[in-house]
Structures are given as structure tokens and as C-alpha cells.
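Request:
Um, any thoughts?
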Amino acid sequence: MNPVRLAFRVLRVDGRTRASTILMAVGVAVATGLVLLLASLPYATKARAERAIWQQPYYGSQGESMLITSAEDFSRGTMITRLDVASTSDPSAIALPQGMPKFPAPGEVLVSPALFERMHELPAPALADRFPGRVVGTLSDEALQYPEQFVAVVGHAPGEMPGDAYHVAGFSSPSSARVDPLLSLLAGVGVVVLVVPSLVLVASSARLTAARRERRLAALRLAGATPGQVTGIVAAETGVAAVAGALLGLAISPVLHQLATYVPWGGGTWLASDFGLPPVMTALLVAAMPVLVLVAAVAGLRRVVSNPVGAVAGHTPKPLRAWRLLALPVAGGVFFFAVTSKSSSVAMVLFGLLLVVGSAVVVGPWLTFAVGRVFVQRWRKPAGLLAGRRLLDDPRGAYRASAGVVLAVLIGSMALTLLPSFDRMSGGGGDFRDSALSYSTSPKEAGPAIARINERLAASGQQARATEIHSVVLTSVNGSKVQAYVAKCEDAVRLLRVQLSCVPGPVVYGDDELTGYRVSGDWDSPGVPLVAGTRSAPMFSLDAAVNVSAVVDPAAVPPGVVPSYARVAVPTEGSDPEVVRTALVAEGVSVYNRDIYLAEQQTQLADLRRVTVIGLVAAAVLAGCSAAIATAGSVMDRRRTFGALMAAGTGVGTLSRALRAEAALPALAATIGAGVVGMLVGIGLFGLVREGREGVSAVLTPWLLAPVVLGLGVAVLAASVCTPALKRVRAEPLADE
């Protein structure tokens, strides 16, 4: 008896087996495609980093080949990576990054295509004038982190380079690139929370013909087939679907990778080549999926192999024990140890998460059994009694329809715990007002820079003017120190996020009485008393994120105090912020403002929301499909029972209500539990992200109830397929079974 030939013969003659095999193959294909996509994400982030690593100068590579300095700029909220370079040797001897056409000579500029387009969209004073020289070429995608990235490489003569330029041996090597840790963590979480529902879909598909296949195998066993032959038959039947599904998943993975290129992350999209996996890993992952399915199928043969008569005649399932409830606290303990231990790794966290997700498979059937017992004891209507008896007699089979929904609810609750918590972490952004542009410099360079900036602003017709703000240290009589800004009151009100009531004369503004403090230019100096006659005045911060401790009027600072830190700031009210930024960037510096800081945060939050929505939609679709297939499989498994009930006069409507109750009752209990567990898991994962940020806690909102309600609705909606299945049972002769 050839198991493979027998499996194909069964597929030819049995339509239900064909349907089950096709659905199982689709489930394996989905799982394989998702695994290949998610496993490729760390490699994709590394490919990005390798392309763009040259944009981050490695100042440890001392050499005399070139001078380089880097800065960040922004145009309408989009970050520009700017590198100023100068060759101190033969430019042709400098190894260029892939995608850079040439080393820019003095007065030459290389830009990315996206930046080139933006330079032609805006007036020259708003952007193009920031890059002295003429554009002589563009960088290709091989030199960019993502196709939409804004990059400019500005060539100079060595004597014209900014003062903070470094001598280096060349551009940074791709070997120092690193993967994105956040996306790697999300990829691992995605493997756990999306592949498990995919495997539930596979298991639900396999159950479409479980009862018929069990009777067929039992008959073969009674006819003399050995346990090995029976196992071979099941392996052949399942292997056909599993191998075909894995190969189909491998075939569709390039399509999934192409679709993934349109999902932005970190400010831009991807190249299709980013999602490449090593061939060995691809082969291992593709081979692992059929192996998992085959192991699960063979493991379910114990009853047919050991007791074929019982398989044919039916049996009473063993009652479930309450010890199953211990699986959840044990898994939760491992997970929270992983997220709180100083020595744990990402792999340990993902293992703990996998245990939590897996514990639902152990605990869910017991909850289903408990709900069934309550209904059998308390309910008296026919549909409720039928549903309760089903839950009591076969809790594992009844829970199977809700397993995917439960996992989707757990994922949704976890996401709706994390996202509001991330939102709460956003904000801050420094001490300067939203409209102020500023950069750090030394007090010695601040004065000449302000003169040049104001000259540029006046030439471009802007009303804004630059202001110099120093920083000093105030020391109390007991030795405590605070950092304070030195600025005129009117300048501080225009530039800093504080509220002052300006008073004449030397004054120090703060929350406390500060006139007895000593002032120094740095943290190490003992300081000298403030100017005689200095008064104290109140200062109020505009929000909790402001870190301004005091503002000192310049007249209150003794002449001998030399600040070691200065900041050049420009208020942009009444002026074009882009033109003002151009005037500042001409100094070869990174210009900061609070809006840009918040824009970076919003980009990160948007990435997380986008990934979460995609994951939740995928999980919900998989859960709905597995619930619908499991419900249809439940009807097929009990054709004899339903046929007999219909022959006895039970209506299709009563049986449909019973089947919907079978889906809704365990789903209600399990989804509530999954919502609580998902919330706790989200709190645990948030603890990893907020590490080092005191006073930040997870945020719980009423939206946490949404996954429970939607999960219950999905379970009931998926169970509606029972009515067509019951009508088909009624239309077929009962003798067929």
C-alpha cells in the first residue's frame, strides 16, 4: 500500500477532503509568506543602514585623506542630511560609497533626487541657497537610506571647512552598520502574534474532514494496517497540502516583499532588494512549516493507532482539569521576568511572549468547559441546551472556533495599551518656543555669527533678527547648582518657553529666591556673587516639559564671569521660517526647533500606528477565516448528529442558533480574559521601551474594550456560515453517513 498514491486517490474521489486540503495549503502558504516577510525585516533594516552608513562620519578613522563634518537640516518638516567635505589628498584615491558619482570639488554639490525636486519647488532663499555651489550630480538609491531621503554633499576647499571638521581616512564602511532594534523587536512580536493565528487557520482547515478521516483510518487499522502505515497515510495526506502551501508561500513572498516596500518606516519607504533573506535561512523556514504541520497531524493519531474500535464507535472525552489554569500565570511569570530582568535578551522576551500566547490554547478549552457546564445547569431553551451540551462534551473542539479570535483580541489589547502609552511619552522638545530656531556655539563665535546671520536676514527682506543667549551656573550657599540662561527679559519672553514679568535693573528670574546664589561660567568654578543690588523676580514655565531653572539679566552678571556655552536663536514670527533657517544653516550648523523635534516623534508614532493597524487587520482576517472554517468543520464532523436531529423534527433555525451560541459563549469568556492578558503584556513591553524614563507609566483607555467587542462580533459573524452548512446536511441523504 503506497501512502502517497492512496492520499491522491482520496483527493480525487472525496470533494470535502479536497476542500480541506486546499484550505490547509492556503493556511500554510499564508503562514510561510508571513514568516519569510517578518524574518526579513532585520535584514532589511541592516541593508538600509549599510547604504546610509557613509552619511555618518566615523571620527575614529584618523587619516589625512579628507575633512568632513555632518549636520541635520529640515525643509518643511523633512530632515536633510548634510555633509560638508574637502579633499586633502588626491580625490581619486578616496573610496566612494556606492551610488555617489564623484567626490565633489570645491563649489560642487551632490544631492539626492528627492532633495533636487524640492530645491526646484521652493524659492532659492528657502532651500537651494543653503548649499553654496552648483549641483553637479545626484546620488542614486544605493547611497540613500530610502528613496525619499534628502541628502546633500557639499564640496569645499580645506581652508573653507567649518571649524568642527575632522580629518578622516575616508567615508564610513558598511561593515559598521547595525539593524534597527525597534523594528527587529516588532518583527519578532509579529512572528509570534501573526504566525500563530495562521497555524490556527491550518488546524481549522485540517478539521474539516477530521471525523471522516478518523473513521477511514480506523477502518484501515481494523483491516490490518500497521501503525506505521496509518501514520504514513496521514503524513502523505497532510504533506501534500503542507508542502504545496509552503512552496506557494515561497512563491508569493516576493509579492509580499514588494507590498512591504510601500509601507513607510523611519521617514521613507524601502527598496525591494532590502527584504532579501540568506538562502540557507529561507530554505530552513520553508522546510520548517510543513514539518510543524506534519508533526501536529501525526501527534493527533494516538487514539486511532491505539484504539481503532473506539475511534469508530465514538468516545466520551476526558473531563478537563483545573490545573490548566496554571499555564497562564506560569507563562506570565516567565514573560515578566524577561521584561524586568537586567540580563534578559530580546529572544528571552519573545520566548516569554510565545508562552503567553500558547497558554491560551491550554486555558481556553477549560474556560469553554466551564461555560458549557453553567449553560447545561441553568439554561432551558433548546438552542442553549444544545450549545451547552456541545461545550461540555467537546470543549477542545468548541474552543477551536474561537482560538484565532482570542489571539486577535490579545494582540489588539496589547497594541491599544502600547500606542496611547507611546503618545504619552511624546512631547518635550527643549526650552525654546515652537517658533524659535537655534543652534549651539561658543561665546567667542556667537557674536560674529549673529552679525553674518542678521546681514543675510536683512538681505532677504526678513524682519527676524538673531539673538545671543548665554548659559551660566548658579550655586547656592549649600553647594547645590542650577543652570541658568543669560538674556534680556524681552528676549527671554520671545525665545524661551517661560512667562516673566519684566522689571528694570539687574534681576534674576526663578522659582525661588536666587539673589544669594553665586554665578560662574561652568560647573567646576566656585562662582562669584551676583552684581550688588540684584533683585529676584518670579518665573513660570509654560508646561511641565520645560527645563529652565532661572533667567539672569545680563546686567546681573559680574564682568569676570565668562560663559562656556552660548546659543544663537532667532524668533520666526512675521518671517518665512524656511528663509530664516537658510540664514542659520549657512553657518554650517545643525539648526534646532521644537516643531522638528515633535515631528520626529510623530513620525515614529505614525510608524507604530501603521504597523499596528496592518498587524491587527491581518490577525482579524486570519481569526475570522479560522472561526468560519472551524464552524463549518464542526457541522461536517457532526453530520450524523445533525441529520438525526433534523429527522426528528429539529429546525435548521434552532440548530443555527445553537451553533452561534457555541461560538459566542466561549468567545465571550475567552476574549475578556485575552483582553486582560493583552493589556498586561502591553504594560510589560512598554516597560522595556520606557526604561530610563522616570515618572512615565502606561496609559489605559476605554478603547481597550474595543478588541473584546469586535472579537465577539467576529466570532458570531464567522459562525453564520453554519446555516448554509446545515442546509447542505439537510439536502443530503442521511444514509450517506
Observations:
- The first helix runs from residue 3 to 13.
- The longest strand covers residues 66-75.
- The radius of gyration is 34 Å.
- The mean pLDDT is 81.
